[in-house]
Specification:
Elements lengths: L1 H16 L3 E5 L4 H14 L3 E5 L3 H7 L10 E5 L2 E4 L4 H10 L6 E3 L21 E6 L2 E7 L1
Parallel strand pairs: 1-2, 4-5
Antiparallel strand pairs: 1-3, 3-4, 5-6, 6-7
Length: 142
């Protein structure tokens, strides 16, 4: 029976990979729209934007540590992306699916991150944090 369930899960994975991206955001946040447009172009999938006045509940339910919050929370193929996570890091974690990682987060809204690019303004340094049941750790530095 376990083998049958495992086989069905493997068959279902490609279908799940084609699903839309769901992004919960603070209502009316414009930088979230910029991030969503970049993700849509890069991943070739629709981004469904939900204005969520109670996003903190969604963040908690998603397992996001409170200190990693930003202005939007997206779910792609079951992985949570909080804030302005660079697309290359998203693609890497979606491909790798590292054990113990529930998602990636960029706390705050650092200038120069995906969707927060401002012409003529130098990018800030920031970390992308992997989080999950095994804790939090730096996934990438930018």
């Amino acid at each position: 029976m376990r083998k049958m369930i495992y086989a069905l899960a493997l068959l279902a994975t490609p279908a799940l990979a084609a699903t839309d991206i769901v992004m919960h955001r603070d209502p009316g946040c414009g930088c979230c729209e910029k991030w969503a447009a970049q993700v849509k172009r890069a991943l070739g999938r629709e981004v469904r934007v939900i204005d969520d006045r109670n996003r903190s509940s969604f963040q908690r339910a998603s397992g996001l540590p409170a200190n990693l919050g930003s202005c939007h929370t997206a779910v792609i193929d079951g992985i949570v992306f909080e804030g302005h996570v660079p697309i290359a890091d998203m693609q890497r974690v979606l491909k790798m699916r590292p054990a113990g990682v529930r998602g990636l987060a960029v706390a705050g809204m650092p200038l120069g991150s995906a969707g927060m690019d401002v012409p003529g303004v130098p990018a800030q340094h920031y970390n992308v944090i992997a989080f999950g049941p095994s804790g939090s750790r730096v996934f990438a530095r930018h």
